[in-house]
Amino acid sequence: MGLSYLGIFHTVIGIIAIIAAFVSLFKSARIDLGKLSGKIYFYFTLFASLTALGLSSVKGVNPGHILALLIIILILTAYYLYAKKPGNNRSRFFENFFLSFSFFLSLLPTVNETFTRVPVGHPLASGPTDPLIGKTLLILFLLFILGSVLQFRRQRKINRLARL
């Protein structure tokens, strides 16, 4: 596989972040920063994104660095909304969307790296342009859209009930 120590650390904390996101989505239908799984997602995604800035097979800034910075901005903004704008209000819509979008964006390099490295010696995909990667990302994108719509509807219902 040929991973550096930073690459191994990045991969381990990234996997933990993804598992925490799935746990939070399963339990709360959103990544809930008020719960342990949401906090794990936040911190481990932050560290995974920061360590991604130190990983590169080419010199200079590349799309992976831009993606990592975008994820950092999304989760920090979501955390700000969670901490500074408590209660069931419009901020929850943005918080939910930013965390879900950051999770979706985290899956882009995850799918590519996993499919081009596993199983060792006979990877599932030949590279980023492999149709299997494209189809998988399309399915994940459609799930992200569906999940975002369901989260929006759920939050709207929660906000209405809170006003009563």
From TrEMBL:
<keyword id="KW-1133">Transmembrane helix</keyword>
<feature type="transmembrane region" description="Helical">
    <location>
        <begin position="64"/>
        <end position="82"/>
    </location>
</feature>
<protein>
    <recommendedName>
        <fullName>Transmembrane protein</fullName>
    </recommendedName>
</protein>
<keyword id="KW-0812">Transmembrane</keyword>
<feature type="transmembrane region" description="Helical">
    <location>
        <begin position="132"/>
        <end position="150"/>
    </location>
</feature>
<feature type="transmembrane region" description="Helical">
    <location>
        <begin position="6"/>
        <end position="28"/>
    </location>
</feature>
<feature type="transmembrane region" description="Helical">
    <location>
        <begin position="40"/>
        <end position="58"/>
    </location>
</feature>
<feature type="transmembrane region" description="Helical">
    <location>
        <begin position="94"/>
        <end position="112"/>
    </location>
</feature>
<keyword id="KW-0472">Membrane</keyword>
